[in-house]
Amino acid sequence: MKQRYFDDLKAGDKFQSEAVEVLGAAIVEFAHKFDPQSFHLDPATAERTMFKGLIASGWHTAAITMRLFVRTLNFVEGAIGLGVDELRWPNPVRPGDLLRVETEIVDVRPSRSKPNHGIVRLRNVTKNQRDEIVQTMSAAALVPRHAVGDR
Amino acid sequence: MKQRYFDDLKAGDKFQSEAVEVLGAAIVEFAHKFDPQSFHLDPATAERTMFKGLIASGWHTAAITMRLFVRTLNFVEGAIGLGVDELRWPNPVRPGDLLRVETEIVDVRPSRSKPNHGIVRLRNVTKNQRDEIVQTMSAAALVPRHAVGDR
Fold first, then answer.
1. Where are the alpha helices (DSSP H) in chain B?
2. Which of B20, B76, B111, B151 is the most exposed place for a label (fewest CB within 10 A)?
3. Which residues of B touch A42 (CB under 8 A)?
């Protein structure tokens, strides 16, 4: 699998992740650990909420999105998250949904403080098997550059 | 433990969560599932990164923050996340760190589309045992109101 550097990216580049299925058991497990609320924890109780059934924690969707993004971009040494804005969950994620992430590179610039790195701004859109958007976010990440001798 | 409704909150209210220890094994487990990058996965490899040791995924810190927040505010029926902005990780989380969350209610208003709910805007600041800020975020959540007959 191709490993990427900052230098391999330019504004406008688009990437599509593989798809991953979200199992009901994983929704419940994540909720027990991190987001113990009725609509994430128990199918029967969730039936009586406005969601009419179990839905994933938004933080679970965000974490799944991170996995898909990391595997798709596959940065050498990894991408260090600087911050996230406009994180939204316009539609719920339900058991059995197949999620995939579309990444668009919005901006790239060398880091002033860390000359071996560049700053990448990107937008991630997470969709389900019906092409409904379940999450959107903008992010900035610090990504390694090629060593000068490599270029 | 007191259960809260939208009507129990006003702008300026502040809450402090309990503290929770972040174990190295939990950092690695979360990373394997959701953020498989070297500085989150393996202490030896992480030693050779700019962090000089294992650090938690920002999404892990966000998920831990959610747990602490949910347990502190303890909304009846739960709080439905509408969105998050200005999510930042100014300092890394390392194995053995004790995290706690300070919540400030920024704004409250009734929901126009869902009369049984109100919208709460809040700011969560997550700190470690040395009072260093490891995460900040702003969020909006949909929270149940008292039934009219209850007021």
1. 24-34, 38-41, 43-47, 58-73
2. B151
3. none
A77-125 pLDDT tens trace:
899 999 999 999 999 999 999 999 999 999 999 999 999 999 999 999 9
Contacts of A116 in chain B (CB under 8 A): none
pTM value is 0.95
B83 chain-A contacts, CB cut-off 8 A: 86-89
Within chain A, where are the H helices? 24-34, 38-41, 43-47, 58-73
B99 touches chain A (CB under 8 A): no
DSSP state string for A53-78: S----HHHHHHHHHHHHHHHH-BTT-
For residue B33, give every residue at least 6 positions away whose Cβ sits within 8 Å of its Cβ, in sequence order, or none.
Answer: A63, A67
Query: What SS3 state is found at A17?
Result: coil
> Does A32 lie at the interface with B, CB-CB under 8 angstroms?
no
* Closest alpha carbon to B134 in B103, B99, B83: B99
DSSP three-state, residue B140: strand
Interface membership of B82 toward A (CB under 8 Å)? yes
ipTM strictly over 0.85?
yes
B23 shares contact with chain A (CB less than 8 Å): no
